[in-house]
């Protein structure tokens, strides 16, 4: 069986959904599970809605109506007004009506997941209805009954054993009857609350289903020709990889390459399932195949740019050396605040650490660190990672920016720049 994942860009309008069905038609006769993201920029819009709700802002209904109008406009381009998809979508949005009527309680991440998840619940309704409309038999599946997570909202930790058991129990029989369409990015807790798996988590969803069902391959359909050596938004003269090893792909995503969610590759590697990254506009193109290939020769470096970084420097309040006890306390705080460290360096009197800036988490951490350390920080920074670098190329990359922290290993160069 095959697993397909369609990201937000591929289903951003009616033309995208029509294109999706054309791609799927090419695979008629194969068992197919389709994982779909929220349409276009819906997740960002729902994030805005969540913030407006929690802060009880006046523009909440404005934001909400825009989200609804966008989806109903797409529906009206795909279906006659009497089509049941209109009611399905309206009924899904009702969940938001109920939620925003009440006063927000104080767990932001919990509220976020209950609201933001509506994006995928709606997009899959539309995609599923359209597949059936063009004569492809397809069934809508609520992923929250299959991908079981703990209650770490916004970053649900998947309970693999339970998840695979449920998937293996029900999905093979469904796939015999037709296509299965389900939501990326979402999970469910044992108390039936919705969780999300982290931004761009739909790739990970596809990998979970593929690993549990021992799929032949996973294909993620994208608006790029495959995996490029650098983001074309930042660099010209990019090249596409026809092949990549699992290990290289893991390294790339770890350092922040946005093309694939970082948790996606490992389960596929363990089950030896190739991941194909293909352009949805040209389904016959080969794209990039990620599999267990031998190390390649990298003619061009792999460059990963990650923005919105904060660099924090800690020193002990009594000006003593930074000891293992200090570090152990610091790491515990990072773990407790769910902050992943992107780069760090220890010197005699200070510990410097770089990570993604996320306001609420940062403020919490900062307050806790301040109690024990002198804390200095700098935000709005960028971290540039270069794999397979040549020393002489690094200068051009940095350009006239100031380097605040730098680390070079044999294969990988990393620089935090301002
Ligand atoms: N819709 C979610 C996001 O934009 C998940 C995904 O697209 O993979 O982050
Ligand atoms: Mg997306």
Any overview of this molecule?
Strand 5 (186-188) and strand 6 form a beta hairpin. Helix 2 (42-54) crosses helix 5, helix 4 (85-101) runs antiparallel to helix 6 (118-133) and helix 7 packs across helix 8 (202-213). This protein has 2 domains: 2-291, Carbamate kinase, CATH 3.40.1160; 302-417, VC0802-like (2-Layer Sandwich). With 418 residues, it is α/β, with parallel strands linked by helices. It has helices at 14-25, 42-54, 60-78, 85-101, 108-116, 118-133, 160-177, 202-213, 246-254, 265-270, 324-336, 359-370, 391-398, and strands spanning 2-6, 32-36, 138-141, 179-183, 186-188, 194-196, 217-222, 227-228, 240-241, 243-245, 275-279, 288-291, 302-316, 341-346, 351-356, 373-387, 403-408, 412-417. The radius of gyration is 23 Å and the shape is globular. It contains 13 helices and 18 strands. Bound molecules: aspartic acid and magnesium ion. Magnesium ion binds at residues 7-8, 37, 43, 200. Aspartic acid binds at residues 7-8, 37-38, 43, 119, 184-185, 199-202.
List strands and helices in order, with pairings.
Layout lengths: L1 E5 L7 H12 L6 E5 L5 H13 L5 H19 L6 H17 L6 H9 L1 H16 L4 E4 L18 H18 L1 E5 L2 E3 L5 E3 L5 H12 L3 E6 L4 E2 L11 E2 L1 E3 H9 L10 H6 L4 E5 L8 E4 L10 E15 L7 H13 L4 E6 L4 E6 L2 H12 L2 E15 L3 H8 L4 E6 L3 E6 L1
Parallel strand pairs: 1-2, 1-7, 2-4, 3-4, 7-11, 10-12
Antiparallel strand pairs: 5-6, 8-9, 11-12, 13-15, 13-16, 14-15, 16-18, 17-18
Helix pairs in contact: 1-6, 2-3, 2-5, 3-4, 4-6, 7-8
């Amino acid at each position: 069986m095959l697993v397909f994942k369609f990201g937000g860009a591929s289903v951003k309008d009616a033309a995208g959904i029509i294109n999706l069905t054309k791609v799927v038609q090419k695979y008629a006769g194969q068992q197919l599970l389709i994982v779909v993201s929220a349409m276009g920029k819906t997740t960002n819009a729902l994030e805005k809605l969540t913030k407006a709700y929690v802060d009880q802002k006046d523009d909440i209904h404005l934001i909400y109506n825009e989200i609804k109008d966008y989806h109903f406009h797409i529906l009206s381009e795909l279906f006659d007004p009497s089509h049941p998809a209109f009611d399905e979508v309206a009924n899904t949005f009702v969940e938001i009506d109920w939620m925003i009527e009440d006063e927000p309680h104080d767990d932001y991440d919990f509220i976020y997941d209950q609201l933001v998840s509506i994006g995928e619940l709606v997009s899959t309704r539309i995609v599923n209805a359209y597949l059936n409309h063009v004569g492809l038999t397809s069934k809508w599946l609520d992923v929250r009954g299959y991908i079981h997570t703990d209650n770490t909202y916004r970053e649900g930790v998947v309970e693999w054993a339970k998840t695979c058991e449920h998937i293996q129990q029900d999905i093979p029989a469904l796939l015999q009857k037709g296509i299965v369409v389900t939501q990326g990015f979402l999970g469910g807790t044992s108390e039936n609350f919705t969780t999300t798996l982290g931004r761009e988590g739909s790739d990970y969803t596809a990998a979970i289903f593929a690993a549990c069902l021992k799929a032949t391959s996973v294909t993620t359909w994208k608006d790029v020709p495959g995996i490029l050596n650098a983001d074309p938004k930042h660099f010209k003269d990019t090249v596409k990889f026809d092949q990549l090893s699992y290990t290289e792909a893991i390294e790339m995503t770890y350092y922040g390459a946005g093309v694939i969610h970082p948790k996606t590759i490992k389960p596929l590697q363990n089950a030896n399932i190739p991941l194909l990254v293909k352009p949805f506009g040209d389904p016959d193109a080969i794209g990039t195949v990620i599999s267990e290939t031998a190390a390649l020769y990298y003619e061009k470096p792999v460059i990963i740019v990650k923005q919105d970084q904060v660099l924090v420097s800690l020193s002990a309040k009594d000006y003593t050396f930074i000891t293992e006890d200090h570090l152990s306390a610091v790491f515990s705080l990072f773990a407790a605040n769910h902050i992943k460290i992107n780069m760090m360096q220890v010197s005699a009197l200070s510990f410097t650490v770089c990570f993604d800036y996320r306001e609420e988490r940062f403020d919490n951490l900062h307050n806790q660190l301040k109690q024990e350390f002198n804390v200095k920080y700098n935000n709005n920074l960028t971290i540039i990672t270069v794999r397979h670098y040549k020393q002489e190329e690094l200068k051009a990359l940095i350009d006239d920016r100031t380097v605040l922290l730098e680390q070079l290993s044999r294969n990988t160069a990393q620089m935090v720049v301002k």
